[in-house]
# Entry
Amino acid sequence: MRSPIPDYLSDALGDVASDTSGAPAGYIPELATADPERLAAVFATVDGEVYGAGHLDVRFTIQSISKPFIYALALADRGFGAVLDKVGVEPSGEAFNEISLEGGSGRPLNPMINAGAITAHSLTGPEGLGPAERVERVISGLSAFAGRRLEADESVWASEMEHAHRNLAIGHMLRSHDILTEDPTTVVDGYTRQCSLLVSTRDLGVMAATLANGGVNPRSGERVVSAPVVRQVLSVMSTCGMYDAAGDWATQVGIPAKSGVAGGLIGALPGQIGIATFSPRLDPHGNSVRGVSLFERFSSDMGLHLMEVPPAARAVVRSNHVVGAGPDAVRVLQLQGGIRFAGAERVVREAVETVRAEARVAVDLTMVSSIDDVARRMLLEVARRLTLEGHRVYLVDPDSILPDPDPGDGVRVIVVGDLDETTSP
Ligand code: GLN
# Structure
């Protein structure tokens, strides 16, 4: 059988192809000459599967889509404190190239606008790095997200530098507030090289999937940044990634995203997929017109909006019944699926309300696919309290889905591989 997913993507591209509104970025002359008909879309799953349609291997410059990844590298290289001291996390509601800084401190409002991104660029790599080494750190970091070595488009870089008056003005303003501590021209030059790295829609899909996968590139298996860094980056993408269109995007699409003026657009849905599109004509916010339409369609067709309410956690308790009678009775709580706080609360309630005189209680995890840390601690606390009340508590956990099953206080739960081991008299 042929996968229906690439066919779906082709259909979606066909539906937006007739929209020729907007125009390629004009302020970077080299971008104005891009073929405006180019069109591509990619879904990259957290398992490393990549689906695509259209011109998915055509390369274009990454531009502002580099910003979330550079922010991630700065956080990883310098730590949260050092980065937050210099770049805020508040949406600006302004255009990406607005010449404005936070009153007083002079901090850029967030790392998705140019002022914040230029600052984040200066914070990559260890302190004291020279400009060339820093650019190398940026290239190798972005390459790790993509899973292949990226290269710059020298002509786009030169073309943008020739007209980088706004970014240079921002750089000088940052320098005057000591947010930048080196020559602003050198930093803007490095930032512009970062923006001129060539990527394909396929690359962007994998980069987005690396964020969706908590910082591990799902194709290469490399951990590029830590999970807390990814959480920070996705949060800022969701509030600031689409500049002065961030509110519309949050309500209509609801996927943390970032656009670039060459026409690329990425979205990362935690735990599910990275999405990338490419189409060079931009709307007045500097976001790809057909890219925005595609994301709106993907989000509504596939229920990808982050605020879509997931199925209720009550499905976690698959069954709750007693096997046997009298002194041999075993209360069996059979759980299933992924268990997080709300699911674990359901198990706690079930235990409080139904466990009575049964000498044995078995918590059957055979059909559980994941347990997060809070759920793990809650289940172990249930086991601890039931044990202290005099029950013999079994965890049926053939795949060791619950790590380190020690409830503390010297209490021991009995871990078995099969429910039969708990019910045999
Ligand atoms: N290099 C571009 C700039 O700094 C990136 C802007 C963008 O993609 N929105 O103006």
Notes: The pocket of glutamine is lined by residues 63-64, 96-97, 114, 160, 167, 195, 260-261, 286 (CB under 6 Å). The chain has a mean pLDDT of 94. The longest helix spans residues 131-146.
